[in-house]
Design a protein that fits this description.
There is one protein chain. This protein is an alpha+beta fold and about 375 residues long. It folds into 3 domains: about 10-150, Alpha-Beta Complex (Spore Coat Polysaccharide Biosynthesis Protein SpsA, Chain A), CATH 3.90.550; about 160-230, no CATH class; about 245-369, Jelly Rolls, CATH 2.60.120.10. The chain is about 20% helix and about 35% strand. The strands form 7 sheets. A 6-stranded antiparallel β-sheet has the order 14-15-16-23-18-21, with no helix packed on it. Strands 1-4-2-3-7 form a 5-stranded mixed β-barrel. The longest helix is centred in the first third of the chain and has 13 residues, at about 10-20.
């Protein structure tokens, strides 16, 4: 192990491995290069092994004056959030210091399901776990914490300011991603994913556009986005915990538009994949094939639809969508009805072992009806 107080990544990992193997929870501290107020710090204590130290204390994101003092202290490093430990040791400490998190995760794992190569923990049990970091929940309390200082070109990309720092910039200090136009604009991070973002006469702003939301924040407040998320959660806004594009074992779907009694989706089914045989209590559906070939089951009828062809699925009818081709199948689905939630899916047969299947007798009754 090198005697350099800030070894490179490989040497740091080599120093950490035997200590972690003996039951310590090891974190890695990055040699600071500036008085950074956006990172947490770790103060090293007594040596535990060559290149490894006991953690004396964690320092949360400091004010500038404190960050300058920490930079001058050779015993302080940036908290990288990178860990090395045995899973069994971490779980023991988690049960000791954060028993609610440990219990929720245990229940989520016990109720897991499997589809194809995916193991999916129980969503309800997992959602019941408090939201907390490894640092807060365990590392700041355990007596097993050690730190390995190391030197690396590291950035946690944990803030929009960090993205601005690592992005190419124009002559005015603007970092622009996507379809962006800026005039008389300085030191901004402008990010577009769907629509044109135009900035005029502004300075020191973060503007991030996505399909379902637009963030506009002053640099001085950019670290407070979590407060906006909390407000959205309290208001019951779907943007707080779901995306417009959702991945499934068979492909994905994206919400294109929604309103009173209607919702439009773009559905992509991977080659050879099939959706569950299902029906809905509250909605009817219209499907238009945009690309590829669709094998469609409606009741007892099975037929193939090509591009520019469409079909109608009446409310309550058993149906299934399949891609028998070699290219992705793309369809536009328009749902209409009084309730359009994803929980209005009654699965009669599912290739991926998802919950909601009904007995064959029920399937026969639906088909006969």
């Amino acid at each position: 192990v090198t005697s350099d107080p800030f070894p490179a990544t490989g040497a740091a990992a080599a120093a950490a491995a035997p200590v972690a193997g003996n039951g310590s929870l090891v974190t890695f501290g990055v040699a600071p290069t500036r008085p950074e107020t956006g990172y947490g710090y770790i103060r090293s204590g007594a040596a535990a092994a060559p290149g490894v130290f006991r953690v004396d204390r964690f320092v949360e994101k400091p004010a500038l004056a404190e960050a300058e003092r920490l930079l001058a202290d050779r015993g302080c490093t940036w908290n990288s959030g990178i860990f090395l430990f045995k899973a069994s040791v971490y779980l023991d400490e988690l049960a000791r210091f954060a028993p609610v998190i440990h219990a929720a995760c245990g229940e989520a794992w016990a109720a897991r399901t499997r589809d194809l190569d995916f193991i999916r923990v129980d969503a309800a049990a997992f959602a019941a776990s408090p939201s907390d970091s490894i640092d807060y929940a365990v590392m700041e309390h355990t007596q097993r914490a050690c730190v390995v200082p190391f030197a690396a070109d590291w950035n946690d990309l944990g803030s929009w300011k960090a993205f601005h720092e690592v992005s190419p910039k124009d002559e005015h200090g603007n970092a622009m991603v996507g379809d962006v136009v800026a005039l008389d604009t300085e030191r901004c991070y402008l990010h577009s994913t769907q629509r044109l973002v135009a900035a005029l006469g502004v300075k020191d702003l973060v503007v991030v556009e996505t399909a379902d939301a637009v963030l506009v924040a002053d640099w001085s407040r950019a670290q407070e986005v979590k407060h906006l998320l909390s407000q959205l959660t309290r208001a019951g806004r779907s943007e707080a915990d779901s995306h417009l594009k959702v991945y499934r074992p068979w492909g994905s779907y994206a919400v294109l538009a929604s309103g009173d009694r209607f919702q439009a989706k773009r559905i992509v089914v991977n080659p050879g994949k099939v959706l569950s045989l299902q029906f809905h209590h509250h909605r009817a559906e219209h499907w238009v094939v945009v690309r590829g070939t669709a094998k469609i089951t409606v009741g007892e009828e099975v037929r193939l639809l090509g591009e520019d062809q469409s079909t109608y699925i009446p409310l309550g009818n058993v149906h299934r969508l399949e891609n028998p081709g070699r290219i992705p199948l793309e369809i536009v689905e328009v749902q209409t009805g009084a309730y359009l939630g994803e929980d209005d899916i009654v699965r009669l047969d599912d290739s991926y072992g998802r919950k909601g299947e009904l007995p064959v007798e029920v399937l026969k009754t639906k088909n006969e009806g």
